[in-house]
Amino acid sequence: MHGKRLAKYLLLTFAISYACWGGLAVLIRLGAFCFTDPPAVVLHLLGGFGPAFAALAVLETKRTAKAVLRFVFGYKKKSAVFLALFFVLETATVAFSSRERNPMMPLWAIPLVFAQAIFLYGGEEELGWRGVMQPELEKSMPFALAALLTGAVWAAWHIPLWFVDGATQQGIPFSLFALLAVLQSVWYAAVYRRTRSVFFCSVLHGLTNTLLSAYVIKINAVLAAGFLLMTAVAFIVARPAAGGADG
Description:
The chain has about 250 residues and is mainly α. It is built from eleven helices and no strands.
């Protein structure tokens, strides 16, 4: 039953996202519109909601408003410290390694970009990747393997965006993007394991996307050391729950 749930989730996720993004790539190449035109924005946005739509479709409880809100915003008591820990670690890592803000993003815009990143451009994906796939995999494999596999699938899910003219992914080598996705997967999976909060993962996902926009990212020893530290902390944080998913 659990395997069927995961298979259904993945099938729906890839079908929705690949249809939207694949169609978007073709329509832009045909000159129907540009990436910034409203129809393109809608298709791009709908594709990003593939994991969220699929997660709600395979929700284990009845899809009432109360059940959906509990699934998205529920959390363990006194667990926000784990969100705060990774929030501080990632912000400090990017800030100290880059030391240069993006001049195209004024300070006043950062909270707005952050809110959009949580709810519209990245954070919404967490309903599926950490809300469904990670815990489902942990029922049959160790935490680390589940996190790495989720990260790899999550990276592959983005592939159509490299064929969409105008998408930001075209300016990033896929290998580098995939590495970051796997690292993020470990961080977020650890936070989810200790908090059981999809929303906390959405906040961290939104933070990553905001930092990538707010700073001129520099790949250097400080960035590598910070990300390795976060990964080590993630495995330490997840360790008390090793051997099975928390309730």
